[in-house]
């Protein structure tokens, strides 16, 4: 909840691109930490950081989608986004389960964090530089 409440303040001091970049990076790094953590306290802190990051960048994503999508296509774009997200969950669970059996759950979560952190590469695209 803190991330959602602070997102209004964060938006006043940071650009949408910065919020997305740091949110994605922080979320991915928190997953790496979560996978490698050895104590319950470290798990709690890593989870809190990841949750804060997700709650901070999700409103920005939704706002951008509504801002740049033509009104007559907004429902289709939202539905397509949700469909793609929900359709990939079973595949991701299968891959994570198989990987978890082979190399262990801690390392599997850390690898997921590395992949999630790599998503910041999209912010190097020229059109992403235009985000305000």
Characterize the structure shown.
The protein is an all-alpha fold and 132 residues long. The protein has one domain (2-130). Helix 2 packs antiparallel against helix 3 and helix 2 runs antiparallel to helix 5 (105-118). It has helices at 2-13, 16-36, 40-68, 74-103, 105-118. The mean pLDDT is 88. The protein starts with a helix and ends in a 14-residue tail after the last helix.
Which descriptors apply to this entry?
membrane, 80% helix, mainly alpha, transmembrane, cell membrane, MFS_dom, transmembrane helix
Outline:
The protein has 132 residues and is mainly α.
Which helices and strands occur, and which strands form pairs?
Elements (H helix, E strand, L loop, with lengths): L1 H12 L2 H21 L3 H29 L5 H30 L1 H14 L14
Total helical elements:
5
Structural class: mainly alpha
- The figure for the number of domains is 1
Over the alpha carbons, how many angstroms does the gyration radius reach? 16 Å
Helix content: over 70%
End-to-end span in angstroms?
24 Å
Rounded mean pLDDT is 88
SSE ordering: HHHHH
Give me the count of strands.
Answer: 0
What global shape is seen? globular
Main sheet specs: none
Organism: Alkalicoccobacillus plakortidis
Domain Major facilitator superfamily (MFS) profile: 1-130
Membrane topology: Multi-pass membrane protein
Keywords: Cell membrane, Membrane, Transmembrane, Transmembrane helix, Transport
């Amino acid at each position: 909840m803190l991330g959602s409440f602070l997102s209004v303040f964060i938006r006043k001091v940071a650009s949408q691109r910065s919020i997305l970049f740091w949110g994605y990076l922080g979320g991915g790094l928190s997953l790496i930490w979560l996978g490698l953590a050895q104590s319950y306290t470290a798990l709690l802190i890593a989870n809190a950081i990841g949750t804060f990051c997700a709650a901070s960048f999700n409103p920005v994503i939704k706002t951008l989608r509504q801002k740049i999508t033509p009104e007559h296509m907004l429902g289709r774009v939202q539905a397509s986004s949700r469909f793609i997200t929900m359709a990939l969950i079973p595949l991701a669970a299968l891959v994570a389960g198989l990987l978890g059996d082979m190399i262990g759950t801690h390392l599997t979560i850390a690898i997921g964090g590395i992949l999630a952190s790599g998503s910041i590469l999209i912010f190097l695209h020229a059109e992403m530089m235009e985000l305000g």
